[in-house]
């Protein structure tokens, strides 16, 4: 009897090991968005976020984000220039479908908050100037974007705080340059972003 049980265990061991390996492989792939996109053959070129919102209480915010970059029109922008007001930073690129879908809403909010305590800045993670300018013309975007494809400096600057883990990602920086909120993925509800901006402005007393 004991010998029979040992033989059964020996026969079952490879089968169980194979099943365990398959389960591990499936669980690993399912948690990897890039692997999912590869299997789908979608070739979207971005990790899609789910639109989730993260808000950070004043007491829990990290250090101010320091950055410098050159826009599609050749102008240099720095984090120092936006201190004292809220800055909305949107990571995007031209062929990203969710980026195109949210562009008009972001531009509307940019116009709404002009001279009202908040400004917008794009970070283009893939394109050179001609594509970025063409995108702006197509979607009537008036706020500048830093071209980050060559250096990745902007993405690196934000990586230690609430990182932009998907494209698009939109971050709301407070008047001290700290990340106050993040929308991971497409802004599907402009009213949510508007509320995040207003709440962050209200902290500084710059507007109602």
TrEMBL record:
A GO term (biological process) for this protein? Answer: cytochrome complex assembly
InterPro entries from the xrefs? AhpC/TSA (IPR000866), Thioredoxin-like_sf (IPR036249), Thioredoxin_domain (IPR013766), Thioredoxin_ResA/DsbE_sf (IPR050553)
Q: Which GO terms describe its cellular component?
A: cell envelope
Superkingdom field: Bacteria
Q: Which organism is it from?
A: Cryobacterium suzukii
Cell inner membrane as UniProt keyword: no
Assigned keywords, A-Z: Cytochrome c-type biogenesis, Disulfide bond, Redox-active center, Signal, Signal-anchor, Transmembrane
Report the residue ranges that make up the Thioredoxin domain in this protein.
Answer: 58-206
User: Does the record's keyword annotation contain Disulfide bond?
Assistant: yes
What is the first-listed, main subcellular location in coarse terms?
A: other
Name of protein: TlpA family protein disulfide reductase
Where is the signal peptide, in residue numbers?
1-35
Cellular location(s): Cell envelope
Q: Which GO terms describe its molecular function?
A: antioxidant activity; oxidoreductase activity
